Amino acid sequence: MLNNIGLPGLLLIAVVVLVLFGRGKISSLMGEVGKGITSFKKGVSEGNKELEDASNDASAEETSTENEKDKA
């Protein structure tokens, strides 16, 4: 069913949504969507950084343990 929606159909849907909700409501909604995407990207990058830090800490701990074994 959705395979047959072309450019004219999408434009018609956009016009109907604009008429129903108004420009101000759609503008504020898109602003909220943008903020959500930004915070999602920030959370993903912070999560990746935490994983890298944990990996670096684990490898540093393994190195220090190996150095202690070599000294003994």
From TrEMBL:
Organism of origin: Roseovarius indicus
Q: Which GO terms describe its biological process?
A: protein transport by the Tat complex; proteolysis
- Signal sequence, renumbered to the chain: none
Q: Would you identify the family this protein belongs to, as annotated?
A: Belongs to the TatA/E family.
> What does the UniProt entry say about where the protein is found?
Cell membrane
Protein's UniProt keywords contain ATP-binding: no
* Membrane-spanning parts: 6-22
Does Hydrolase count among this protein's keywords?
yes
Which keywords label this protein? Cell membrane, Hydrolase, Membrane, Protease, Protein transport, Translocation, Transmembrane, Transmembrane helix, Transport
Q: What is its main location?
A: membrane
Q: Where is the composition biased (Acidic residues)?
A: 53-65
Which InterPro entries does UniProt cross-reference here? TatA/B/E, TatA/E
Any GO MF annotation of the entry:
protein transmembrane transporter activity
Pfam families linked: TatA_B_E
Q: Which top-rank group of organisms is this from?
A: Bacteria
According to Swiss-Prot or TrEMBL, what is its membrane topology? Single-pass membrane protein
Any single Gene Ontology cellular-component annotation: TAT protein transport complex
Main function: Part of the twin-arginine translocation (Tat) system that transports large folded proteins containing a characteristic twin-arginine motif in their signal peptide across membranes. TatA could form the protein-conducting channel of the Tat system.
**Residues annotated as region Disordered?**
45-72
The protein's assembly and partners: The Tat system comprises two distinct complexes: a TatABC complex, containing multiple copies of TatA, TatB and TatC subunits, and a separate TatA complex, containing only TatA subunits. Substrates initially bind to the TatABC complex, which probably triggers association of the separate TatA complex to form the active translocon.
Q: What protein does this entry describe?
A: Sec-independent protein translocase protein TatA
